[in-house]
Description:
- 63% of the residues lie in helices and 2% in strands.
- By secondary structure, the chain is mainly alpha-helical.
- A two-stranded antiparallel ribbon has the order 1-2.
- Residues 36-127 form the ARID domain.
Amino acid sequence: MGEEEEEMEEHKVAVEEEEVQAQVYPAPLHSHEEVVRDKLAFMESLRRFHSSMSTKFMIPVIGGRELDLHLLYVEVTQRGGLAKVIEEKKWREVIAAFKFPPTTTSASFVLRRYYLSLLHHYEQVYYFRAQGGLIPPAGETIDRCCHLFLCVRSFCERNGMRRALQTRC
């Protein structure tokens, strides 16, 4: 890579970093108590939140049913927020509120993933009253590593590669 290309790449990275740092949380439309009490206010404020953040918003489907994002938000914030639920290993309690059919596997992983993508930043504004720059989810890197490990483990199990699973890092 030539000197000019290196300079252009460094400038591109610097601009991208500035854009991320420049993004700030919008002001909340309601109090945390209001969005917990009123599902319609929650859904409206969540849609507007994603629109103002220019992030994709869709309601996921799990086990053939739309995921109740309001229930997910309420269950997680009742336990102190996402970081605390993860730290204190309370995902089973959160999952229990959903009454998923027994055929729904990996519920905690799926709920956690949707919470991170759809509700984490909303939680920062509405539950923790964060203002200013975005707050990254705690343990995001660990989540990606765990996901990769689970994919590799699943592949090895499906392909009869038990020895690979016994190898230690």
